[in-house]
Amino acid sequence: NAGVTQTPKFRVLKTGQSMTLLCAQDMNHEYMYWYRQDPGMGLRLIHYSVGEGTTAKGEVPDGYNVSRLKKQNFLLGLESAAPSQTSVYFCASSYDHRTGETDTQYFGPGTRLTVL
Amino acid sequence: AQSVAQPEDQVNVAEGNPLTVKCTYSVSGNPYLFWYVQYPNRGLQFLLKYITGDNLVKGSYGFEAEFNKSQTSFHLKKPSALVSDSALYFCAVRDWYSGAGSYQLTFGKGTKLSVIP
Q: Using one digit for the tens of pLDDT, what is the confidence trace for B2-47?
């Protein structure tokens, strides 16, 4: 089991450029999440999904869009990148309905994004 | 609304000494509480959780945490610190009913633990 994987690991963008971050999980989890981590701010939830084809806004959704076309994948898009979006982005997943484990979130290794 | 506070940005402890990383929380109902650890340039790893039952929860790598409902705290502890324990520690909370079935967690800002040889 690879767990939760994220691509790319690093990216540098210029202001106004767009990009998509990919998250994949092989644990058959129902729920997936995108967080950003900034120094002194902890983790803040951007968007989340409770199942294939569904998405919802988290605490800091502005400037981001997401899609979950397949259960195992959760994409985070930046349509027009801004320097304020320089951050480390983490994907997580949870809730295996087969085992009943609902609460523990499993995290990917992160994507370090710099917007110039 | 749910919130969590980690009052210390950094904790320094000598190797072999006991360590404590503090966490307090606020929820409207019953809390589900978690500790995660983040090593440099890595994602968060689950350490332990409290859902219900015994107030002392044991987790990975010899860590344990004590749930105290009256003080709304969930402090992380280890009897004897190792240099390899040096990392960033996050406390997280979820109300038993966080709405929309999403099991959303609210994370603290993190506490950097440095174990000095």
A: 899 999 999 999 999 999 999 999 988 888 999 999 998 888 999 9
User: CA angle at residue B75 from B16 to B57, to 5 degrees?
Assistant: 90
CA nearest B110 in A: which residue? A42
Q: How many residues does chain B have?
A: 117
Cβ of B43 within 8 Å of Cβ of A94? The answer is no
pLDDT tens, position by position, A21-35 = 999 999 999 999 999
Q: By 3-state DSSP, what share of chain B in percent is helix, strand and coil, each rounded to 5?
A: 5, 50, 45
Instruction: Give A108 to chain B, closest Cα distance, Å.
Output: 6
Give A-chain residues touching B101 at CB under 8 angstroms: 50
